[in-house]
Amino acid sequence: xxxxxxxxxxxxxxLLLASSSVLTKADDGYRLWxxxxxxxxGNAALYRPRVASLDIGGDSATAAAIxxxxxxxxxxxxxxxxxxxxxxxxxxxxxGTPQNSPAIAALKLPLADLGDDxxxxxxxxxxxKNVTAIAARSELGALYGAFHFLRLVQTLQPIANLxxxxxxxxxxxxxxxxxxxxxxxxxxYAGKSLWNWAELPEKIxxxxxxxxxADASVGINGAVLNNVNASAQILTAEYLKKxxxxxxxxxPYGIRVFLxxxxxxxxxxxxxxxxxxxxxxxxxxxxxxxxEIYGLIPDFGGFLVKANSEGQPGPRTYDRTHADGxxxxxxxxxxxxxxxxxxxxxxxxxxxxxxxxxxxxxxxPFDGKFAxxxxxxxxxxxxxxxxxxPFHPLFGAMPKTQVMPEFQITQEYLGxxxxxxxxxxxxxxxxxxxxxxxxxxxxxxxxxxGSLFRQKLTAVAGVANTGSDRNWTGHxxxxxxxxxxxxxxxxxxxxxxxxxxxxxxxxxxxxPAAVARIAxxxxxxxxxxxxxxxxxxxxxxxxxxxxxxxxxWWNSYSRDxxxxxxxxxxxxxxxxxxxxxxGSDTVSQYFPPVRxxxxxxxxxxxKYLLWFHHVPxxxxxxxGRTLWDELALRYQRGVDxxxxxxxxxxxxxxxIDDERFRAVARKLAIQERDAVWWKDASLSYFQTFSxxxxxxxxxxxxxxxxxxxxxxxxxxxxxxxxxxxxxxx
Length: 729
Fold this sequence. Notes:
By secondary structure, the chain is of the alpha/beta class. It folds into three domains: 41-166, Chitobiase, domain 2; 172-495, Glycosidases (TIM Barrel), CATH 3.20.20.80; 531-577 and 614-727, Alpha-glucuronidase, C-terminal domain (Alpha-d-glucuronidase, C-terminal Domain), CATH 3.90.1330. The chain is built from 24 helices and 13 strands. It has helices at 2-23, 41-47, 61-78, 102-107, 139-154, 207-217, 237-250, 265-268, 280-296, 322-333, 358-363, 424-431, 444-448, 479-490, 496-507, 512-533, 564-568, 592-599, 609-612, 627-650, 658-690, 705-710, 713-718, 724-727, and strands spanning 53-56, 92-96, 119-126, 129-135, 163-166, 172-176, 222-224, 256-260, 302-305, 339-343, 374-379, 403-408, 459-463. An eight-stranded parallel beta barrel has the order 6-7-8-9-10-11-12-13. The chain is globular, with a radius of gyration of 27 Å. The two termini are 52 Å apart.
């Protein structure tokens, strides 16, 4: 009896556990925002009458991708298989082009002005049947439309009376992968490269298709496969075959591959004695190489080039200009419809110069000298992907040159994959900044989308944060930045709040209270990080080399412009970099209304104060507090946010699967620990100059300045030294 009862108890327990596991599925984050788990029964019931069958035009690989995505996505969301049918049933979903679908052609929808990427989604009645039509001029446009339709269902939007017309504001929306041939990723914090070079081209990782799906779902249509600090090896015949294999996987999803080209490749691969862009042999080598690439990859996008920057070879080695170098490669790919993207991240160390003004000085004189198929890729700010920078002065300053923004999705300076930082807020801040190049309304976004200067080629790039980690980005929340980049690249007028809401509902939960709580967390995260890392316009205060953790005292590099002390200029008389006429005068690179605002201590926004001005510690701020007190309180405010973020996350337990809930909780604990360390180390150093006490409400540092100087936050915390539990309860 006892044995029977015990067995009965064990069986009941097993059934309960099995039932529980079904109700609260573990999720490792692999599916990103393309999670097609069943909607709540009531919601699914509302959609089923409008999604009864599928009719997908065409038999190409892209048409197959549309068919697979809609069938899998809608079937999963609605909890029932959606049949494929060539008949116009009530509730049919049509997808295609006028060329591959007679039913789409018969609707005569307004597609002429949508380009190849645009689409319309209409609720129509055909012969008394309620039908949803997803139509475009090209199959790629129909694919984008299919993903948009799935997004509507995933986020519980009504689909009964759809009248959607969409086309991207920017033509080329690309990711720059800083991946190396050995599988490592420069500034990558989510594992190894997604491209397994050793196994290609014979073995194709199925994950590449899921990468392409994720990109296409947010409209990304280009990928640079290798590091801008390029190895010439990528241009060898062996590696080009591997690149061609990747391109074949990406092609049905509209993603063109690009390669970072090493400028000295004619020497390293071709045996030439020079890489001079005016040399006839060099010109021929690049033409032949372009012919070879396009023979393997007919839709190859072109080259990205980092030249004469941080040790990379380039045209200035031969007393040629950046335009000369760009035009050399542009001429090679032009017959094939390719383009060249030339990075504006160039700066030469010289006595008394300001690194923030170097790119403008190097490139502005060559406005109008770049080839028609060349783009100048300009970082969002004038230094280097800092937590906050003013917009780059080259935006608006080169009206005869095709300029594109470069953002960094990977968090080189923003806590790697340990810190939750929603970067849509940063990017919208830059895109909405007014350059005044042609008067009020001359925003960076209008430079990027070509509307300001009638630019023919338009593009935007994001340095990717993906890797081989199962959840792709190392931190589940950092998937949101990949998603947000694509959404803003498609439509820079979208609000960060709208993007965050979409991503949360598609990726984490649809429970309204949890969505609202998580959105508040995301939307406040970037400002909080600025507070605990670089408040009031401070910049480049990170530990040398890896850039993780604070080191405002760092001055050991031979180049001044790689040292945090070069940027903070902390001294007894104050702190901040004087970029006005009494200093480097790089503020003069901006157009007059902006220049006047930034150069005046009374009008410069607090967020850029120490970027443009060297300010006394006792300077009275708009808040009424002294600069020292304001600085200290900003650091504390960032710490307070990090602590509260953990409480906010704890409050959504139960609305998120346990696996990701615990993973994010662990990351938030690290973020709080790091925020405290940033505050304590930074204020301890700056206090040696201010000689002022910390204001009320600011916690005293837990260690001495000498201890902070000796401990590498990245290495030593990895070994458990100074853990959150030990020192910051």
